[in-house]
Design a protein that fits this description.
The complex is a heterodimer of chains A (about 500) and B (about 1100). Chain A has about 500 residues and is mainly alpha-helical. Chain A has 22 helices and 7 strands. Chain A has helices spanning about 1-20, 25, 45-55, 65-70, 85, 95-120, 120-145, 165-185, 190-195, 200-220, 230-235, 265-270, 285-295, 300-305, 335-340, 355-370, 380-395, 400-410, 420-435, 440-450, 480-485, 485-490, and strands at about 35, 75, 235, 240, 250, 285, 350-355. Mean pLDDT of chain A is about 90; it is low at about 1-15. Chain B has a 22-stranded antiparallel β-barrel. A 5-stranded mixed beta sheet of chain B has the order 10-15-16-13-14. Chain B has a 4-stranded antiparallel beta sheet with strand order 3-2-5-6, with no helix packed on it. The chains are: A mainly alpha (about 500), B mainly beta (about 1100). At the A-B interface, helix 1, helix 2, strand 1, helix 3 and helix 6 of A face strand 24, strand 27, strand 28, strand 29 and strand 32 of B. Strand 1 of chain A pairs antiparallel with strand 36 of chain B.
Chain lengths: ~500, ~1100
């Protein structure tokens, strides 16, 4: 018995020692076998996704309000009126998702840049910075002062302070300068594969960067005392702006196809689901833009929209569902935006535009009309190039002829009607840019309207409960900022969407 | 020297004489039912010395001839037995005076049984009878209202009836607050509490304090529920039990009965909304009884013409089934084993929801000399088939149909909802012909979007003990919990007739979102989790002197947890109704792993492993049985932390003094029969982190990879660099007192927990790149008093008696620090519960100086001076304030349970009432119902323009009371407007106070003379049971059972949604036969 006792004790003691001695290995099991971490996720692995986000993967759907506000799209009679959106009485939650999506994309671009720089991959860092500048401008144009210099450094700045909108604009110019410099360096071989935007074409990246620089400048045209000369000089080459020209649209395409979650973002939102159901059945053409296109005999009408029962019909934005036609009776989006065979899915694999060629040409036209560029091209030619490019871009049948016809015969297009003052020319160009940008970039149209107030009346919501007779100047800072970064956002004071202007607004 | 020798001789002689005169008596102490009385005290009258019976009531004592033995045990009437002429075997039966306080033997850590009077901390034990009286389907429901300090919320009334359990409130702001479950010594996932049949439970002990749990380690910081399952007695008994219960809807939201469908598609010249026969929103005209169409004319021209009245108002309640629960069990108990089989079949309130659970248990044990072995095996199989409300969105991602309850709510009261049951053949019920264009037939949802699953649980434990020396025992215990789960979600294809896709009504085609074909969807998941636990320890006790006994224990734990999950889906099935992921077009849907937290796992497709090592020891001193001191210490090494933080140590101490034994004046008191004071202080460490939580991670979002182009995005969570365990410092003092032979028992405990280093998910601005930082970011204290009062009997009525038990817990808490003093949002968010376009934001939030938690809600813009809502002087509309308001509390301040019972002869009746109050609740259903226009609220002003109550407006720079400015639109314009109504969370916020009659039980033991006088049948009991029979809530709560919460996991409380069935009440009957 005693012997057994000893065995028993020894067994217990032995097992205790044995078990504690294996402690080290036993406890070293906390490396994640399921997810990537900073240790193994490289810039190359992030960039295609970040570029997809920048192209609007998550953003396009949440920008629907702007498409409607500026008169491009409208809710149809199938659905109850969205009281919040149509009354402009936006809540603090209204911009939450948009804000989140922007900063989410910007963070991935930031990480790409940091990781690429650490790896001396300057070209990829530059590409990330250029995409980042595009998005940051849109963020500033929507909310004004926002976190920029302290953004994305959680450990150092858990509560990022807000930078002045104007300062962010200057910082973006500088960042784009650096990016252009980076783009001039030799790219690693991997860049061509990873670059789902320009497929390794570094010149195109530089033109893209310069176009964005120009877009920042144009936006500030009405800021008193603004002098663009030094920045214009940086983007001028051989007496002309070195920006995206005809045929040089920048878009992203990691390999979109007509499958769930893999469709090109605009198509996924406003085209058809892979099974052929309307992506956003509640939304149709706005009667406002239909009216503009129809009365001016614009051949692009059939490219922007589909006919409904042989007619092009839009809905009056903000009206009672009972007073406006249903989705089936109104025009849905057309082949210029969602591809030629509509719900056949060809548009599902199209490039998602970032900056279309014609947008760059319109910016160039306005810069020339304003006399910012001492080049050989006159404003009229520059403007007409842009309009023609718009027809081309939309695949209008016999585009050049149709454009020429339009430029000659439509009073809103004929340069003779542009007036003589810089202001009237700018508004004239802006209106054509507005038409060309239909559906493509509502934020640009919204910004131009706030800057130049050029739109003919009729686009304001018909909702009798609307809180004002003008478009909001901006969105309210999102609820999440008041919740999670309250002290900083409150430094911006009380924000009112009808009175708190973005710095570049006159 | 000589003197010494003579003294020694004398002593030897004496002892010889003594030996000659004494003899050894053995025996067993039992109670009046024949159950062993462990640790009963056996004394020789008029002499010093004596002994204490062992765990099984057996004792052995040398006594002089003709001695009188005094047998006593707390809670039992003492008895004197004269040994004269009794032989050497004396079995004594003591009569129970009460079942409270000191009688109880408590199963403490590592399965070691202790006398309750020794414990320096609060512990409550419930026996099988108490647990099974209301025939609750599982143990957690049976526990409700029975133990002070324990708060159980039933968060839904589905077939799983999951609950959240908190003992003495919460100790962790975001981590796990659920107690540890120990079944037969084996640490077991708490979820098993809902699957262990109450019949299998011998007794259940709730160790409320972290102090009680120092030996159990970090899992026990929230208290421990210790369950001992049955083992047999000497004579084999067979018990057969059969129970049937029916469940009915008990609490329905307040609905409007006056207005039918319409949302502005039809408007008259005055702007009034006309009737729209296919609309889901109910902002149409008032019911007038005239015949009106429902839906549009079908292909064959037929149309439903029905009275436009609220005749089908009740259909929304009648929609829900009478749920049925059948429980049958058979158990055989004998000395060495206990075998039971139980089968429970639950048919839910939701038509076609079904859950069936079959469990098999075998417990056994054997003793060979110094060696003993105990083992148990429990196998549970559960099969369920339920509607998959969450999966509905996968079929209609572009619509906001919401959950089943919401679909029902979107039915106007003139519509005969119940007629649409036959969604396959019913002319007006078929998908293509259903009248409502914006909400599908709820019966179609039930029939077509389903989840079927199966869970197999195996719990096993093996316990070996070897008595090395009389003073030292070696024990080892291996336990495993294995759970295998698999489920398949199937979404049937939507097949719409050509007619429905192309028909136009008044020129308008039908809504293409609803009337378009959609492919079938399948999602398959298989997972398992295993926990292996090895405890090994040496323990024993030793009498240092006659009065002082020391008890000691030293040991260690090794624990390994493994979880694995594989999941795969197809969103585009090619062959209708063939649900296999291989039969699809396009890419498969492979969800990714979202990470782990202390409370759960997000995402699928994971492999998780985490380990724990511990060493612990305890030392206890007992002086004369009435003064007890216990010291414990533990060190853990946890794999989830960084190397430098991995090891942490925590000590504890507790003491108890039984004054009624210690103070001579009290020993013979007729008034005070028992008096004990106790105190405990402890520190316990707790790793409130999941595995792999120390690094920021990346994943591929939906869509990626595109062919060879992969693409990663940073996930939203960043851990702070140096995460440490949380610590809970607990102090408690308690008093237990029994009066009048323990007819009145009172127990009270004051507890104060200081919870430091709380690991929080701190919400971050999106601009940091992350939405969440995990950090040791807050401290809070949690304190209160829990009280139990038992009156046994309260009064005697003839032969009958009335007993009364009352328990009450006051539990308050307060956040004392947050990181940088910034409020921390704990859970909830906008839109998560909500289907309509404008959802309120509601969070649980931790703010310094406020309770854990308060609510953070969207509110109207108010005049800061008066708190009144500011309306626009032109439109009369209120607007939304930029700041969210912080108010209320999520956890009850008071929890009171009252259990009166009456028994006479073989008849007994008992009920449990409980009250929870002082806390608040938010109903997401409220906003949904306003959106649908079905809520009583939305018709408060008859859909007419009205002056917003208690409002002010700005006039000449001053806010003046608004008595005349009416809202511009009193119909849907106001009620569905986000900033005017439906996004304002304070509109749906109310007191969560509730009184409820939680249980009623009437039972009758049939006279045995009917069954051969007990020859074969020992007991036949019939009983009637009812649960949740009555619920009283304040008027401000228009929406539902305030206990319901949108999630059973996580720490959010008081946030209900329309993804839950309405609350239910239950009636049933039960028959128990014992052979």
């Amino acid at each position: 018995m005693k012997c057994l006792n000893k065995i028993g004790i020894s067994a217990v003691i032995f097992s205790f020692i044995a078990l504690t001695s294996c402690k080290k290995d036993f406890l070293d099991v906390n490396d994640d076998p399921n997810r990537g971490t900073d240790a193994n996720i490289t810039a190359d692995l992030i960039f295609p996704q970040a570029a997809d986000l920048a192209g609007g993967q998550a953003i396009i759907g949440t920008q629907g309000f702007a498409e409607k506000w500026v008169g491009y799209f409208a809710s149809n009679g199938d659905y109850a009126r969205d009281q919040t959106e149509t009354s402009y009485a936006i809540s603090f939650n209204f911009g939450n998702t948009l804000w989140a999506n922007y900063y989410n994309a910007l963070f991935d671009l930031y990480l790409t840049k940091q990781k690429a720089l650490a790896d001396s991959n300057f070209v990829l860092a530059g590409a990330s910075m250029i995409l980042s500048a595009k998005l940051f401008q849109e963020v500033v144009d929507t909310w004004g002062s926002v976190p920029y210099s302290q953004a994305f450094q959680e450990t150092k700045y858990p509560l990022p302070a807000y930078d002045k909108a104007q300062d962010i604009y200057s910082a973006l110019q500088k960042s784009l300068d650096t990016a252009v410099e980076y783009m001039g360096t030799t790219a690693p071989l991997s860049f061509t594969t990873v670059d789902v935007v320009n497929h390794g074409d570094q010149d195109l990246w530089i033109k893209f960067a310069n176009t964005l620089k120009l877009r920042l400048l144009i936006r500030q045209s009405e800021v008193s005392g603004f002098n663009p000369a030094s920045e214009i000089a940086k983007i001028t080459q051989d007496g002309d702006l070195y920006v995206l020209g005809p045929g040089e649209s920048v878009g992203v395409n990691p390999g979109y196809s007509n499958q769930l979650n893999k469709q090109s973002p605009f198509y996924a939102t406003y085209g058809y689901t892979p099974t052929g159901v309307k992506g956003t059945a509640s939304t149709s053409a706005n009667a406002y833009i239909i009216n503009i296109l129809t009365t001016s005999g614009d051949a692009r009408l059939e490219q922007f929209f589909q006919s409904a029962g042989g007619k092009f019909v839009g809905d009056v934005y903000g009206d009672e569902p009972g007073n406006i036609p249903s989705g089936a009776q109104t025009s849905y989006f057309g082949p210029g935006l969602i591809g030629a065979d509509l719900n056949g899915g060809s548009g599902a694999s199209q490039d998602q535009w970032l900056i279309p060629s014609f947008e760059s040409l319109f910016l160039r036209a306005e810069a020339i009309a304003r006399g910012w560029v001492a080049g050989n091209t006159d404003a009229k030619t520059a403007y007409e190039d842009a309009v023609i490019e718009s027809f081309e871009w939309l695949n209008v049948t016999d585009a050049d002829a149709a454009a020429a016809d339009y430029l000659a015969n439509a009073s809103i297009a004929n340069w003779d009607n542009a007036g003589s003052s810089v202001s009237s020319k700018a508004k004239f160009i802006a209106f054509q840019k507005y038409i060309a940008m239909c559906g493509v970039d509502p934020l640009e149209a919204w910004a131009d309207q706030r800057r130049l107030k050029f739109l003919p009346s009729g686009f304001i919501s018909a909702n009798p409960s609307r809180a004002a007779n003008i478009l909001p100047y901006r969105l309210l800072y999102p609820q999440t900022e008041y919740t999670n970064n309250g002290d900083n956002v409150k430094q911006e004071g009380t924000i009112n969407q009808f009175t708190s202007k973005i710095f570049w607004q006159p | 020297m000589r003197k010494l020798v003579s003294i020694l001789t004398a002593l030897l002689l004496c002892s010889f004489l003594a030996l000659a005169q004494t003899h050894v008596i053995t025996g067993k102490v039992t109670d009046d039912k024949g159950d062993a009385v462990p640790f009963a005290s056996v004394k020789i009258k008029g002499q010093k010395g004596g002994t204490v019976a062992d765990e099984n009531g057996n004792f052995k004592l040398s006594v002089p001839e003709n001695a009188v033995l005094e047998f006593s045990a707390a809670g039992l009437t003492a008895k004197e037995v004269n040994t004269a002429g009794q032989g050497t075997l004396i079995n004594v039966s003591l009569v129970r005076t009460s079942v409270e306080l000191s009688t109880v033997v408590v199963t403490t850590s590592l399965g070691i049984k202790r006398q309750a009077k020794e414990l320096g901390y609060a512990a409550t034990t419930l026996n099988n009878k108490t647990l099974t009286q209301a025939k609750a389907v599982n143990v957690q429901q049976a526990l409700n209202g029975k133990v002070s300090g324990v708060n159980i919320s039933t968060v839904n009334s589905g077939v799983f009836e999951n609950a959240k359990i908190n003992i003495r409130g919460i100790r962790s702001l975001t981590g796990n607050n659920q107690p540890m479950l120990v079944v037969d010594g084996a640490p077991t996932p708490l979820g098993y509490l809902s699957s262990i049949p109450p019949d299998d439970v011998e007794d259940l002990t709730v160790l409320k304090s972290a102090a009680s749990a120092a030996i159990y380690g970090p899992d026990a910081v929230n208290g421990v529920i210790v369950i001992t399952t049955k083992k047999g007695g000497k004579k084999p008994t067979v018990t057969v039990n059969s129970t049937i219960q029916a469940t009915r809807i008990s609490f329905f939201p307040k609905l409007q009965k006056s207005f039918g469908a319409g949302a502005g598609e039809v408007v008259d010249q005055f702007g009034n909304y006309g009737y729209v026969p296919y609309e889901n929103q109910q902002y149409g005209p008032a019911f007038d009884g005239s015949l009106k169409p429902v839906g549009i004319p079908l292909e064959d021209g037929s149309i439903q013409m029905l009275p436009y009245s609220n005749g089908h108002y009740k259909d929304k309640e009648k929609f829900w089934n009478t749920g049925l629960t059948f429980q049958n069990s058979v158990s055989v108990a004998s000395e060495d084993f206990y075998v039971s089989i139980q089968d429970a079949k639950i048919k839910g309130l939701v038509p076609d929801d079904e859950n069936r659970r079959t469990s098999f248990r075998f417990n056994g044990g054997k003793k060979y000399g110094n060696f003993s072995i105990n083992y148990g095996l429990n196998y549970i199989q559960q099969n369920y088939d339920v509607v998959n409300e969450a999966g509905f969105q996968n079929t209609f991602p572009d619509a906001y149909n919401g959950g089943l309850f919401f679909l029902v709510m979107q039915t106007s009261s003139n519509v005969p909802l119940l007629d649409y049951k036959d969604w396959r053949n019913g002319k007006f019920a078929q998908f293509s012909n259903y009248y409502n264009e914006y909400a599908v037939n709820p019966y179609w949802l039930i029939g077509n979007i389903r989840q079927k699953g199966r869970e197999d649980d195996i719990i096993g434990n093996l316990d070996v003990n070897y008595q090395l020396f009389p003073w030292l025992k070696a024990s080892a215990r291996v336990s495993t919990n294995l759970a295998f789960q698999s489920f398949k979600n199937t979404n049937a294809p939507v097949v719409v007739s050509d007619w429905a896709q192309t028909v136009a009504f008044n020129g308008n085609p039908r809504n293409s979102t609803q009337y378009s074909n959609r492919p079938g969807i399948v999602f398959d998941d298989e997972n398992y989790s295993s926990r292996l636990n090895l405890d090994y320890f040496l323990s024993g006790d030793h009498g240092i002197t006659k009065d002082l006994t020391v008890k000691y224990l030293a040991g260690g734990t090794i624990r390994q947890n493994k979880l694995k999950d594989v999941a795969l889906g197809g969103n585009n099935l090619l062959v209708p109704y063939l649900y296999n992921v291989a039969v699809r077009s396009g890419d498969a849907f492979v969800p990714s792993f979202g990470g782990t937290s202390a409370t759960g796992i997000t995402g699928n497709n994971y492999d998780i492993k985490y380990n724990l090592l511990s060493a612990y020891g305890s030392l206890g001193f007992s002086y004369k049985g009435w003064a007890n001191l216990e010291l414990t210490a533990r060190n853990d090494w946890d794999s989830r932390l960084l190397k430098q933080n991995r090891s942490f140590f925590y000590p504890a101490a507790n003491a108890a003094v039984v004054l009624s034994d210690a103070i001579p004046a009290l020993q013979n008191s007729n008034t005070i029969s028992y008096l004990k004071v106790r105190a405990a202080i402890s520190k316990s460490g707790n790793v409130n982190l999941g595995a792999y939580s120390l690094q920021a991670t990346y994943s591929q979002p939906n869509g990626f990879p595109f062919g060879s182009n992969g693409g990663f995005t940073a996930n939203n969570v960043i851990p702070s660099a140096n995460l440490e365990p949380e610590f809970v410092n607990t102090k408690e003092v308690g008093l237990e007192v029994g009066f009048l032979k323990n007819r009145i028992n009172f127990e009270a405990t004051y507890f104060n927990q200081n919870n430091t280093n709380q690991v929080l998910n701190v919400s971050r601005s999106w601009t940091t790149g992350y939405t969440t930082e995990v950090a040791n970011a807050a401290d809070f204290k949690n304190y209160g008093v829990e009280m139990d009062l038992g009156l046994t009997p309260l009064i005697k009525v003839g032969k009958g008696r009335i007993d009364l038990k009352i328990n009450a817990t006051y539990n308050n808490n307060k956040v004392t620090r947050t990181l940088g003093n910034v409020p921390v949002v704990i859970g909830g968010s906008s839109g998560f519960i909500q289907n309509s376009v404008s959802s309120p934001t509601v969070n649980n939030i931790a703010v310094v100086g406020m309770p854990a938690f308060a609510f953070q809600l969207t509110d109207y813009l108010r005049d800061s001076a008066t708190g009144k809502v500011i309306v626009d002087p032109v439109t009369g509309y209120p607007s939304q304030a930029p700041d969210l308001v912080i108010k209320g509390r999520t956890l009850p301040l008071w929890v009171v349970g009252v259990t009166p019972s009456y028994s006479v002869g073989n008849f007994s009746i008992s009920m449990t009432w409980d009250y929870k109050g002082g806390h608040d609740f938010f109903s997401g259903l409220g906003s949904d119902a306003d959106f649908a226009g079905i809520s009583a609220r939305s018709a408060e002003y008859g859909r007419q323009r009205f002056v917003f109550p208690n409002s002010v407006y700005l006039q000449n720079g001053k806010y003046v009371p608004n008595t005349s400015i009416q809202v511009q639109d009193g119909n849907s314009g106001f009620w569905t407007g986000a900033t005017t109504n439906s996004a304002i969370a304070t509109n749906y916020f109310s007191s969560a106070a509730a009184w409820r009659l939680r249980e009623l039980n009437i039972s009758y033991n049939l006279p045995l003379k009917w069954f051969g006088n007990g020859k074969y049948i020992k007991r036949v009991t019939v009983s009637a049971v009812g649960k949740n029979l009555l619920l009283f809530v304040p008027k401000s709560n228009q929406w539902g059972d305030p206990e319901f919460n949108y999630s059973t996991t996580g720490n959010t409380f008081g946030i209900a949604s329309s993804f839950q069935s309405p609350a239910s009440r239950m009636f049933g009957g039960s028959l128990t036969v014992q052979f």
